[in-house]
């Protein structure tokens, strides 16, 4: 637990401020969507279905705005998100931007007095995580990070089983993600108008390369790759179930197998050191065996396997064709996570995924990326001190 305390201390978490609700029970929440790419439009539909009203849309790419307006025809559109933040009739914002924009957009949204639903991963670095936590806890705003497993009833039930000791002593956890989607990046000209300068923001200035916009997640300037994207989800569940906090250290190796043009690997393996167990986190976007995500918890009493279908627990010693001790088939719903945020806007309570939770979840993936770049083991204390 000492590493967990060190982590939280280094992020300078402050007391939670919980003001009284300014909303009536039936009053609709009005929001603005910042970044209307595929994920942003998906969230827009979910927020609208949940009863919230989209009042504004913002994106640097004109075709994204045109597609988003099909779902929100009455929303005002802009390419500059700060114009959206100036509106007094907007209660909250939904941010689905590239990772390098998460910190500045969150900061600006808080300064404008807006509640925030921010897509994961929380940050692009450990240093940004610290700044973001400090800013949120200085504010009066409700901030939910888009890690929907925190609001999934099936995942919560699985966590309770682990807490009750069903697995016994956990010695190894194996998160993995398999998708056969890798291929060369498309660098052909972009159709429609793009404000490239606004997209870059605080990133390195360079001439437009369309693949950097289309697949921004695979470039160091804009994101932490699949390591922080998918890893944030899975490492959060690992640390939640084990109550461990972030890892003590990480090592990682990866390479670009088929995603020609990318800087981040489409195949990698990371090993994380914790006080009394270890984690091997692997990803392969060139193979669909056991397609999708899964997390296997290996305990001396039982094994738990979680995936997109639900979870199952098998007793030790495992036997072929054994019936599970516990099983639940239930997907992970984004809708529940969005509803939790909307409820918290009215109650002014902390949502299911706070900035502190999200910072701990992405800490290990940030360490693994550092280890991959440096070509050696990186300790959390070393990385945190560097911030």
Radius of gyration (Å): 21 Å
- Main sheet attributes: strand count, strand direction, barrel closure: 9 strands, mixed
Strand order of the largest sheet: 14-13-12-11-7-10-9-8-15
What string gives the helices and strands in order? HEHEHEHEHEHEHEHHHEEEEEEEHHEH
Find the CATH topology of the largest domain.
Answer: Dihydrodipicolinate Reductase, domain 2
Query: Fraction of residues in helices?
Result: 25-40%
- DSSP helical segment count: 13
Total of domains: 2
Number of strands: 15
Strand content: 15-25%
Low-confidence region ranges: 8-21
Structural class by helix and strand composition: alpha/beta
Structure description:
Helix 5 links the parallel strand 4 and strand 5. The chain has 387 residues and is of the alpha/beta class. It has 2 domains: 169 residues, 3-Layer(aba) Sandwich (Rossmann fold); 201 residues, Dihydrodipicolinate Reductase, domain 2. It has a 9-stranded mixed sheet. A 6-stranded parallel sheet has the order 3-2-1-4-5-6, sandwiched between helices.
Features:
six-stranded parallel beta sheet; Dihydrodipicolinate Reductase, domain 2; 2 domains; globular; 15 strands; Rossmann fold; alpha/beta
SSE layout and pairing:
Layout: H1 2-10, E1 30-34, H2 38-49, E2 53-58, H3 62-69, E3 76-78, H4 81-85, E4 92-95, H5 102-111, E5 115-118, H6 126-138, E6 143-145, H7 153-163, E7 170-178, H8 196-200, H9 210-214, H10 225-242, E8 249-255, E9 267-273, E10 278-284, E11 292-299, E12 302-307, E13 310-315, E14 326-329, H11 334-347, H12 355-374, E15 378-379, H13 380-386
Parallel strand pairs: 1-2, 1-4, 2-3, 4-5, 5-6, 7-10
Antiparallel strand pairs: 7-11, 8-9, 8-15, 9-10, 11-12, 12-13, 13-14
Helix pairs in contact: 5-6, 6-12, 7-10, 10-12
């Amino acid at each position: 637990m000492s590493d967990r305390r060190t982590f939280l201390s280094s992020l300078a978490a402050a007391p939670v401020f919980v003001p009284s609700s300014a909303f009536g029970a039936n009053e609709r929440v009005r929001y603005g969507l910042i970044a209307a790419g595929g994920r942003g439009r998906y969230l827009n539909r979910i927020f609208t279905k949940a009863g919230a009203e989209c009042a504004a849309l913002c994106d640097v790419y004109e075709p994204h705005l045109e597609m988003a307006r099909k779902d929100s025809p009455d929303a005002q559109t802009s390419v500059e998100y700060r114009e959206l933040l100036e509106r007094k009739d907007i209660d909250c914002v939904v941010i689905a931007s590239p990772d390098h924009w998460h910190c500045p957009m969150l900061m600006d949204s808080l300064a404008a007095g807006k509640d925030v639903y921010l897509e994961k991963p929380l940050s692009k670095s450990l240093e940004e995580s610290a700044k973001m936590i400090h800013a949120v806890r200085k504010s009066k705003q409700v901030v939910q990070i888009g890690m929907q497993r925190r609001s999934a009833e099936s995942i919560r039930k699985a966590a309770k089983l682990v807490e009750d000791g069903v697995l016994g002593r956990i010695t190894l956890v194996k998160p993995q993600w398999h998708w056969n989607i890798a291929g060369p990046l498309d660098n052909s000209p972009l159709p429609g108008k793009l404000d490239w300068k606004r997209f870059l923001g605080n990133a390195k200035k360079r001439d437009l390369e369309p693949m950097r916009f289309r697949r921004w997640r695979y470039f160091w300037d804009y994101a932490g790759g699949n390591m922080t994207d998918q890893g944030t989800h899975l490492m959060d569940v690992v640390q939640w179930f084990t109550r461990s906090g972030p890892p003590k250290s990480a090592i990682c190796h990866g390479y670009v197998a088929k995603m020609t043009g990318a800087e981040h690997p489409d195949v990698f393996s990371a090993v994380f050191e914790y006080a009394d167990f270890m984690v091997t986190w692997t990803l392969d976007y060139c193979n669909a065996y056991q397609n999708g995500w899964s997390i296997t918890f290996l305990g001396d009493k039982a094994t738990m396997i979680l995936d997109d279908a639900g979870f199952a627990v098998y007793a030790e010693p495992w036997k072929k064709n054994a019936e599970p001790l516990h099983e639940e088939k239930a997907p992970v719903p984004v809708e529940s996570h969005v509803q939790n945020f909307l409820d918290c806007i009215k109650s002014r309570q902390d949502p299911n995924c706070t900035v502190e939770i999200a910072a701990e979840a992405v800490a290990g993936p940030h360490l693994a990326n550092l280890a991959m770049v440096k070509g050696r083991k990186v300790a959390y204390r070393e990385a945190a001190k560097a911030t």
